[in-house]
Design a protein that fits this description.
Layout lengths: L1 E6 L10 H10 L4 E9 L3 H7 L7 E6 L8 H11 L5 E5 L2 H14 L3 E5 L1 E4 L2 E6 L4 E6 L6 E5 L15 E3 L30 E5 L10 H10 L2 E4 L1 H5 L20 E5 L5 H7 L4 E6 L6 H4 L2 E4 L2 H11 L2
Parallel strand pairs: 1-2, 1-4, 2-3, 3-10, 4-9, 5-9, 11-12, 11-13, 13-14, 14-15
Antiparallel strand pairs: 6-7, 7-8
């Protein structure tokens, strides 16, 4: 039987929604026991949330003042100390997971499998390459632990009707002294997080300026949606880069994606290909975005978007 350890990403208060999707991937490995580990200074509330996830066998907590901030250099040695008990170690393909899991793989002396999108067997996985245009089948050695990040856009979150036991544990690991937490600089917003939002409204270079992006924010607020942008809009300085959607930005899978003034370059389409419904608004009827859109509106976005916003209750 496979024994899988899922690294529980959190913000110090609640579990990141990506973990429910990572567990869904782990559950695709038949006959598997799935543990979630929470590294924190105070892990009780986060662990209680993780314990409700379906398919989770047990939640482990590692409470240590050193774990008060999610530093990959500090968490990785602790994961490695726990690794001998597990056949697989999974993390989400988020900023946190992409920082942590390569360190874990390097310390274990194994190759990491990145962006798992499907499980063929306990040691055979599928992942996208070439901007998602090709799906590669990767086979991992059976005599080494499998270290992988999960492409959360490819999975639906598991339910939360479970009541798994929570167990406190400790890690006999030498923590680094060369890395320290200084500060976190992050934008604050009342809007849903871009990577987990069910609805996302994105704007492109056609908006013309940062000020004109206000019509995107207004529509998103009316819809209760997250806000994204194309790389062209980010490069033009209309919005910060954490809003970028696409191959070099965030890969998302909302139920509804509204692309406004976005032509639909292949790099952008890579980031939204798993969206449930795609709506495109563009004055160019030949824009590539219309080839993948479920609903398309051809016209001036500066007329259509305010009218659409006003029509929403």
């Amino acid at each position: 039987m496979s024994k899988i350890l899922v690294i529980g990403e959190h913000d110090g208060h609640s579990l990141n929604p990506s973990i429910a999707k990572t567990v869904a991937c782990a559950a695709e490995i038949g006959d598997a026991s799935i543990d979630v580990v929470v590294f924190a200074e105070a892990a009780a509330d986060i662990a209680a949330e993780a314990a409700t996830l379906d398919s989770v066998s047990k939640v482990l907590t590692v409470e240590n003042p050193a774990n008060s901030k999610p530093l990959a250099a500090v968490i990785a040695p602790q994961v490695v100390a726990m690794a001998p008990a597990y056949s697989h170690i999974f993390g989400p393909s988020t900023t946190f997971g992409r920082d942590l899991m390569p360190r874990v793989a390097a310390l274990l002396g194994v190759n990491q499998i990145s962006d798992v999108m499907s499980v063929n067997s306990a040691h055979e996985f599928q992942r996208p390459i070439y901007a998602g245009n090709v799906v590669m089948t990767v086979q991992a050695p059976a005599d080494h632990p499998v270290v992988a990040t999960v492409r959360t856009a490819s999975y639906t979150a598991v339910g939360n009707s479970n009541s798994a036991p929570v167990e406190a544990t400790s890690c006999d690991a030498e923590l680094p002294t060369h890395t320290r937490y200084i500060e976190l600089q992050a934008g604050k917003s009342d809007r849903p997080d871009l990577q987990t939002a069910a609805k996302v409204v994105s704007g492109g270079r056609a908006l013309g300026s940062a000020e004109n992006f206000d019509i995107i924010y207004a529509l998103a607020d009316k819809m209760g949606a997250g806000v994204g942008a194309s790389r062209a809009a980010v490069d033009a300085g209309y919005v910060p880069n954490e809003m970028q959607v696409g191959q070099t930005g965030k890969i998302i899978a909302p139920d509804l994606y509204v692309a406004i003034g976005i032509s639909g370059a292949i790099q952008h389409l890579t980031g939204i290909k798993d969206a449930g419904t795609i709506v495109a608004i563009n004055k160019d009827a030949e824009a590539p975005i219309f080839e993948v859109a479920d609903v398309g509106l051809v016209g001036d976005l500066f007329n259509i978007v305010p009218e659409l916003t006003d029509s929403l209750e």
